[in-house]
Amino acid sequence: MEEEKPKPAEQEQPKPVEEEKPKPVEEELSKQ
């Protein structure tokens, strides 16, 4: 089982930061 997925953490959340706030700058500009 481990051989199939040596890095399950990466597959679960490869980029949690981007998902949370992919482009906070765009939102600010849109508000103005």
Overview of the molecule:
It is a single chain. With 32 residues, the chain is mainly α. 56% of the residues lie in helices and 0% in strands. The N and C termini lie far apart (51 Å). 0% of the residues are buried.
Instruction: Please report the distance between the alpha carbons of the first and last residues.
Output: 51 Å
The total of beta strands comes to: 0
User: What is the strand content?
Assistant: under 5%
Oligomer type: single chain
* Global Rg: 16 Å
Structural class: mainly alpha
**Fraction in helix:** 55-70%
Number of helices: 3
How confident overall, as mean pLDDT? 64
- Please trace the helix and strand order, writing H or E for each element: HHH
Main sheet properties: none
Q: Could you say which overall geometry the principal axes of the C-alpha atoms support? A: rod-shaped
Low-pLDDT regions: none
